[in-house]
Design a protein that fits this description.
Length: 418
Amino acid sequence: MSGNPFETSLKTLHEAAALGHINSEVVRLLEQPQRQFEFTIPVRMDDGRLEIFTAYRVHYCDALGQIKNGVRVVPDMDMDTAKALGFWMTIKHAVGGIPAGGGKGGIKADPSKMSRREYEALIRGFIRKLPMKGAWVDVPGADIGTHGRTQAWMLDELEEIQGFHSPAAINDKPVEANGTELSREATGTGCYFVTREITKAMGMEKGARVAVQGYGNVGRVATELLYKDGYKIVAISDIYGGIANPDGIDVVALGAHVDKTRSVKGFPGCTEISTSEVLEADCDILIPAAVQSVLHEGNAERVRAKLIMECANGPTTPAAEQILYAKGVTIMPDVLTNCGSAIVCSFERTQGLTDQYWDKETVRSKLEEHIVKSFRETYDTATQLGVSYRDAAWINALQKIEKAMLIRGRAWEDKTLG
Ligand code: NAD
């Protein structure tokens, strides 16, 4: 994202709302969060000092269901980031057909500078101080700086406070703490399903050439599934550098190399390239799966892929997007491509509410069914209205939220009635 992330979200809202003729009261309601909280978490540090951390939680919009999603713990966390990400989650849940509203929050802190005891106290403090909580109100998940372990602490603290078992109230928990199967692989798996569908729709041959930036949780899972399905992986990078091989990279052997060395760098039989050169690799499909704003005015013209699958959030700046569209490049937007984990988080809550836990194959096939349906909706809207896939996904999401808001009476169809 370039500039203020919240302003970038508002820009997309206004563009898509105009194209989709969204009710003006609905747009006004979506221009700001429904609720936002800023609170403090005092933590007694190991050296005896009392440190007071600032935390944020935004309930952006709950028209489609309970508030749900991540808690980010980073030194530069602020309310604008929570607002932008909360809005994004609202749209992502609607795109993914999930009966949930969007929220986000976080703590301004650096986990790498804290002992395990201090960090656990901070996370438990977040749950104690969180003003509204529970499976029907606000379900915190993981994000940067949080993970299965922190989510298990959150659940434990919440159940201590409530006095009863409540696994549906926290997401991204390990399986051993009433979490769901496929939690870690959900986003990469979802990206694989959407890539498979769009390449079929575009008439791309089996064996299409793929370049991937970012070989972490998301990029690696998506790459391994595409490779298994016969796509040719020709370039990969992580933060340390990249590798390329026009004849195709052996992704299974690469997995063993990455497990050993923690990087793709140095994998035998490949040319070494830089982490940004991978974006300009000679390929059919480019998967940015690292960080935001990597495709910008300065490099968009040199992108050779015909299709970009946005696995990272906001990898394409608005200026780059215009250049890429002018070159005829197709972009599958982040809100669809990476909504797999949002969908599986919704399954996690359902399993927690029913106390019936599904096996991996069940979760995988339900994810496939859900995300392929979302892809179809986006594809059909883009085709019918002649708009980009990003606009189509946003229009569909806004229309779902609009219907909910109108039927609930939060906005009026006919404003002359009053
Ligand atoms: P990760 O930390 O597991 O992996 C990130 C990868 O990107 C690593 O290979 C890292 O080396 C590389 N990287 C980091 N900074 C880079 C840089 N400046 N340039 C090039 N490479 C860089 O993260 P992840 O969970 O795989 O998430 C990847 C992206 O997907 C993020 O943008 C994240 O917000 C987004 N996303 C993740 C999920 C999820 O479920 N994990 C869901 C939706 C969106």
